[in-house]
Specification:
By secondary structure, the protein is of the alpha/beta class. It has helices at about 55-60, 205-210, 260-270, 290-300, 305, 320-335, 350-380, and strands at about 5-10, 45-50, 65, 85-90, 95-100, 110-115, 115, 135-140, 145-150, 180-190, 195-200, 230-235, 240-245, 275-280, 310-315, 340. The N and C termini lie far apart (about 60 Å). About 40% of the residues are buried.
Length: about 375
């Protein structure tokens, strides 16, 4: 079971209480206050880890609770601060604040839906987690090792030694530790890859990913063989590498969450370049021209930013006789778009595709370097002096 969205409840550790004690030893029957401070509670931290590829560990253990700090003791012994609870999550995890669920009331009146009361003879529809609001986003763990504290631990209380004075030499006052933060969060994983393979079911995306990378996604002659996003590492020339994501097949109405539309489309948002994989032979009884128009429409309706992403056409299944005529029509209509004819199953056109990916990777690296240099100039950074 692939899990890319989960709701968790996090509770940081409470701070330990301070101590109110007095020094009592032989020959010192009335010593002064010596109560120690309490320890701090542990934080709850999420850290991006490249060894985690989904959120299944949090799906089965959604309660994250850090340990509390130790209490202060006599002889100015401070309580031990609790360790932080560090939870690994996949790289590309988005953290949203989630409203506290309402408690279930067993004595509440039954709900009315279409004039009928529950329970009814019809099975209740399975409800998933609602899409979060953009303003609820608190962190984006898009780099390996990046971490974010979702709940801060409580501070330890102070012992009575802090309250002694010339007028109050035997204070019994101490402070309790503060409570740790507690809240609900929605974690959403989005695959991070340079290029994304977008296409209809059974267009050959998984076979293509096998041909260009070391990934081994499941391949079959039936639709929706790929149910989960797969990311493969592609080795390029001059020791360059890039990543390509195999997005499960889209259908019409995916932007309306038909089928598993939103679950698949949100993984495309991380891809800087889109590879439109088309069955150029129309072996599934569909027109490749209609497929491309429908895919572009679904991406634009889901998020207008996707329509502005750079893209190209990967004309797959060119070994079939019907593909040649369709390819000529595409070249005539899409003159400004790069079209790469391939046959993923036979390995034809794969070197040209890798060369094209390397060209785009180099362009992206150059643009990122220019943007970084421009940002440094805006912040007032000066180039090193040359003597």
């Amino acid at each position: 079971m692939f899990i890319d969205r989960v709701r968790v409840h996090a509770k940081a550790g409470d701070g330990g209480d301070g101590s109110a004690s007095f020094r009592r030893e032989k020959f010192i029957p009335k010593g002064g206050p010596d109560g120690g401070d309490g320890g701090d509670g542990g934080d709850v931290i999420l850290r991006a880890d490249n060894h985690i590829d989904q959120l299944a560990n949090l799906f089965f253990e959604p309660i994250l609770k850090a340990k509390p700090g130790g209490k202060g003791s006599y002889r100015q012994r401070h309580g031990k601060s609790a360790p932080d609870l560090v939870v690994p999550v996949p790289v590309g995890t988005l953290i949203y604040r989630f409203p506290t669920p309402a408690p279930h009331d067993p004595f509440a009146e039954p709900e009315l839906i279409d004039g009928e009361e529950f329970p009814s003879d019809q099975p209740r529809a399975k409800k998933g987690l609602a899409d979060p609001m953009p303003e609820d986003l608190v962190a984006d763990l898009d780099e390996v090792g990046k971490e974010f504290i979702i709940c801060h631990g409580g501070k330890g209380g102070r012992g009575n030694i802090h309250f002694k004075s010339s007028r109050n030499q035997a204070p019994r006052r101490f402070t309790e530790g503060t409570e740790g933060d507690e809240s609900w969060f929605l974690l959403e994983m989005r695959s991070i890859a340079f290029a994304g393979l977008v296409g209809y079911p059974n267009a050959g995306k998984s076979t293509l990913l096998r041909a260009i990378s070391r990934a081994h996604p499941k391949v079959g002659s039936y639709a929706f063989t790929t149910r989960n996003p797969q990311v493969g590492v592609v080795d390029l020339e001059d020791y360059h590498k890039t990543t390509v994501a195999d997005i499960p097949g889209l259908i019409e109405g995916a932007h309306e969450n038909r089928g598993l539309g939103h679950q698949f489309l949100r993984h495309v948002m991380r891809c800087a370049y889109l590879l439109m994989v088309l069955d150029m032979a129309g072996s599934e009884g569909r027109s490749p021209m209609d497929d491309l128009n429908a895919l572009r429409k679904e991406l634009e309706l889901y998020n207008p930013e996707l329509a502005e992403r750079p893209w190209c056409i990967v004309a797959n299944k060119m070994d079939m006789p019907e593909a040649t005529a369709n390819l000529k029509l595409f070249k005539k209509k899409f003159k400004g778009v790069t079209i790469l004819p391939i046959c993923a199953e036979l390995g034809e056109g794969i070197p040209e595709l890798k060369a094209f990916l390397q060209e785009k990777v180099v362009e992206q690296e150059a643009s990122l370097a220019e943007a970084k240099a421009a940002k440094l100039m805006e912040e007032g950074g000066n180039s090193p002096l040359v003597y």
